Amino acid sequence: MDNKQFARTLVTAALPYANGGVHIGHLAGVYVPADIYVRYLRLKKREVLFICGSDEHGVPVTIRARQEGSTPQQVVDRYNKIIADSFRDFGISFDNYGRTTSAVHRQTASDFFRTLYDKGEFVEKESEQYYDEQANTFLADRYITGECPHCHAEGAYGDQCEKCGSALSPTELINPKSKLSGAQPVLRKTKHWYLPLDRHQQWLEPWITRQHTEWRSNVMGQCKSWFDMGLQPRAVSRDLEWGIPVPVEGAEGKVLYVWFDAPIGYISNTKEILPDTWETWWKDPSTRLIHFIGKDNIVFHCIVFPAMLKAEGSYILPDNVPANEFLNLEDDKISTSRNWAVWLDEYLRDFPGKQDVLRYVLTANAPETKDNNFTWKDFQARNNNELVAVYGNFVNRALQLTKKYYDGVVPAPGELTPQDRETISEFQNVKAGVEKLLEDFRFRDAQKEAMNLARIGNKYLADAEPWKVIKTDPERVKTVLYLSLQLVANLATAFEPFLPFSSQKLRAMLHMPEAEWDRLGSTDLLPVGHQLGEPELLFDKIDDSVVEAQVQRLADIKKANLAANHKAEPVLPNIPFEQFEQLDVRVGTVLSCEKVKKSKKLLKFEIADGLENRTIVSGIAQHYQPEDLVGKQVCFVANLAPRVISGIESQGMILSAVNFDETLSVVTVDRPVVPGSRVG
């Protein structure tokens, strides 16, 4: 629906899990688009509230605490600060960033459960779950490991095999083991409460598929697939110590399941800052509720949370859920466990002051309806070819020419030419285009439309050539620079939602106190006689060496991951010792080495073997430069039958070790020996 039909807008951003830092995938998928939208609404003078906070309960936190020898609270305290600092550093302008371990949240979630419980909205079920008799506790899925029934990899979790990606249940694992004690768990009966989503499908399905046809195709598609399978009851409690206790008798040792607990955090985080008026934002039908999330949260925000709100009975339902798909990194899925990510704190260390460059690139590559890809080369190209060469270039030329010709004072325009009128018409049209795209949650296209203002300005200056015309028609230059400066001021406003740091810097250069969205497209944002500040470069180029360092860092991470996961090939069948004795392995000194003509793989060696020397051909040219091997002492098989390779008789085989990543290392000795010495 259109924003104008509502008195206010409540925007929520998915609660990041307090088990690690924030990376570019999080920023691109949820937080930058949400921030763009909120900043736009604020510029439009609409009443808006932007809510988020850390999701701090659940099994992964307890696992990390055990690994670190700390407590779950210490873990979430640390990551809550790291995450909040990262968001602040990148200008994500939450009105409140709370947490699900707060007293307000604990009470709110507990009361919410109790309301549904008292209304009979839950179903009680008894089921069998794995129990660790040594640790005296029921085991969450992630505390159970075993052999995957599909790919037979060891170490598969009770909910998923990370090697083949199969979704699992703990009872499917072969030879399950408890991660707490290492013991084999046993099945025991336990009681839990379930939200019967099957009862809600009758209203949920038409509400989404008929009343919200404007939702993104990826969101609608995932919802339809759930409806086609038929919704099933979902547990709202689990056996765990870390979490909000289930507030009913007989529920000792049970907490609210984190998926039930977390979305209530939106409500409790609103309560924290608006204790007296929070209900206006959650229960007044004139409030529009928008959830910004990633695709892994679609079912929770489109199906489960609305069912919870409807069951409670007094809350509004979301009007839109603009979920993004995933952002990949250098053609590979971002993975926190493999450290395959660009972490925000590391980015700011390597690119200080360049928050807006990353915001720009992530928006330009936003995975709005399908997965997209981030590469460092594209990052560099967009910075150098768009932010520097288009936006920054226009701003700098307009301000520097005004400084040079008019001491930085906005000149008075003369009579407008057809060229001037055409330019004015073009940049006045940008406002409507940007607004329409932002209202439709098409942030990638909206940013591109904002950049058109800079393209219009560059073309205008290039066509008008004020640096030439100043010699023959100085009055004409006043008009050209007056309109160019108005375009610059429009850019400062148009990019305010997208690049807040750069817009603030540009407004400071213009001595322009604030961005006024309603005046976007105006030709009098800077009055005649207005004194401008000192021009500075808005963006600067990123060198190849800087990007190459980032690419190399990722290559090192990938190599380390391969090494960590590599297992040696099985040993070949045993052979008799007498068979081994028949093999004559010796040490020889490389006298010369050269590439074999018309071959990319072969090197020709002359080896001093302590007898008459010999020639050996080896396929290692892609791993060594010939000159690097001359003088080395290498191990070779001396009694291999000669064979002709590329027309050269090879009298032996040089031994090499092949690494897990297919790199190769020639077998040498660690101290000089006499050529011809036997290896045994």
> Number of DSSP strands?
26
> Helix- and strand-based class?
alpha+beta
- The CATH homologous superfamily name of the largest domain equals HUPs
Would you identify the regions where 5 or more consecutive residues have pLDDT less than 50? none
CATH topology of the largest domain: Rossmann fold
* Whole-angstrom Rg: 33 Å
Distance between the termini: 81 Å
Please state the oligomeric state of the protein chains shown: single chain
Q: Roughly what is the average pLDDT, rounded to an integer?
A: 94
- The CATH architecture assignment of the largest domain turns out to be 3-Layer(aba) Sandwich
- Number of self-contained structural domains: 4
Gross geometry: flat
What is the percent of helical residues? 40-55%
Continuous helix count: 21
Report the sheet-strand fraction.
Answer: 15-25%
Task: Tag the structure with descriptive keywords.
680 residues; Rossmann fold; Methionyl-trna Synthetase, domain 2; Isoleucyl-tRNA Synthetase, Domain 1; four-stranded parallel sheet; 21 helices; 26 strands; 17% strand
Could you explain how this protein is built, in words?
The protein is flat, with a radius of gyration of 33 Å. α14 runs parallel beside α17 and α17 (474-494) packs antiparallel against α18 (500-510). Strands 17, 18, 19, 20, 23 and 26 form a six-stranded antiparallel beta sheet that branches. It folds into four domains: 3-119 and 208-223 and 257-328, Rossmann fold; 123-192, Beta Complex (Methionyl-trna Synthetase, domain 2); 375-567, Isoleucyl-tRNA Synthetase, Domain 1 (Orthogonal Bundle), CATH 1.10.730; 577-679, OB fold (Dihydrolipoamide Acetyltransferase, E2P). The chain has 21 helices and 26 strands. The model has no long low-confidence stretch (mean pLDDT 94). Helices cover 42% and strands 17% of the residues. The chain starts with 7 loop residues before the first strand and ends with a strand. It is an alpha+beta fold and 680 residues long. A hairpin with a 7-residue loop joins β17 and β18 (603-608).
